[in-house]
Amino acid sequence: MKTLPSLALLAVAVALGYWMLRDAVQVRPSAIPAAAASGETAIATPTVSPAAAPAAAQSQAEATIPAPPPTVADTPPTPPAASAEPTAAVPANSAADLLIPVQGVTRDQLQDTFTDARSQGRRHDAIDILAPAGTPVLAVADGSVEKLFDSERGGLTVYQFEPSGRYAYYYAHLQSYADGLAEKQPIRRGQVLGYVGSTGNADPGAPHLHFEVHRLGPERQWWKGESLNPYPLLRGEQRL
Ligand SMILES: [Zn+2]
User: Fold this and answer.
1) 29: CA distance to ligand 1 center in Å?
2) pTM
3) Fewer CB within 10 Å, N side or C side of the chain?
4) 164 C-alpha vs ligand 1 centroid, how far in Å?
């Protein structure tokens, strides 16, 4: 007789608990669909209205479409301008870029003559930069004079090693060297190495600097290396 009332109480408690829990559980699911439904309606409403008024929306859409293109058009000009500024500033500021080795010549005046054919089936493997005889020839980068050489084809030439010794720069057809220029001399980017001329096999009527960039082998021999096209390097489009 003691257990019966307590069992009844327990049953009532369980029933109450179930009732309350069921209410709580029911409230939530019913609230969520309601919210979801309102969300769907909110989403559906805008979708419906453009679709409902396609003709009217078309003129609106045309008005709206031109709006994004201006923003898109506005965006590209910014990157080119931003990229143009660094590239324009780079040759002047960054020692990582090669200086154009003929004074007064801009990169837009350069012509890519790297793959031009030369006598005896040779490839040019260089860039020719035309300039009046006597125009200063400038070091494209820091480094040192490895070799001053007077060759049949190149005339008066300078072989410059850059500091790591992995690359060499070759300047040919010089009219003369800068005063005091000597082998093993350290040189700075922009330093005058000599003057444009037409020594060697260059056409006397078209004085120019013949300029090459070499990737040296492990033996670091000034007369031996793989030719790299100086054109993109001088234009700041590539770096060594
Ligand atoms: Zn040449």
Assistant:
1) 83
2) 0.62
3) N
4) 26
